[in-house]
Write a structure and sequence with these properties.
83% helix, 168 residues, 6 helices
Length: 168
């Protein structure tokens, strides 16, 4: 009987070491995620009260715990991408991009709940922001063979200005 218990204990120690190795240096990202989830919970409850909705505590906590588990998964995916692509690129650009998108969505959720709670008409759409940035970057980039002439630089500047005018 003692033998089975020590095997289980050894397995749990190895599993704990693997989890600590995976998440150890990502503690800052996990703390950021936990803070954002708690802020979203607080402002979500306040926004629901402002709308006159009934607050069901069990549903609010269930959704919050689901978000925490989702963020653990996304941070794990980002770490796997860092270990896969970061080695060849030298920097964990892909994993940082994934984390910025995931946390950007949560920040926009917190801000939108806050704006609704305060009665402000503003909304933040992270996807619209990312689309605008990619349009500007796409217009600013050009083929390196063509970028040398003043005419091509003028054309690129006109393209960027056209995109800015369309936006606004």
């Amino acid at each position: 009987m003692e033998h089975g218990s020590s095997l289980f204990s050894a397995f749990m120690v190895m599993l704990g070491a693997a989890i600590a190795d995976l998440y150890g240096h990502l503690a800052n990202w996990l703390l950021l995620g936990a803070g954002l989830v708690l802020l979203d919970l607080r402002f979500g409850i306040k926004a629901a009260r402002r709308r006159g909705e009934t607050i069901r505590t069990s549903r609010a906590w269930r959704r919050t715990i689901n978000k925490v588990v989702d963020y653990l998964g996304w941070v794990a995916v980002a770490e796997m991408m860092s270990r896969t692509f970061g080695v060849s690129l030298g920097e964990p650009v892909v994993s940082l991009g994934a984390l910025f998108i995931v946390f950007g969505i949560e920040i926009s959720s917190c801000a939108n709940n806050y704006f609704e709670y305060k009665g402000l008409p503003w909304r933040i759409d992270i996807w619209k922001l990312l689309r605008r940035k990619s349009e500007l970057i796409g217009a600013a980039m050009s083929d390196s063979r063509e970028a040398g002439t003043p005419e091509d630089r003028d054309k690129d500047n006109r393209d960027i200005n056209d995109i800015k005018e369309k936006r606004g």
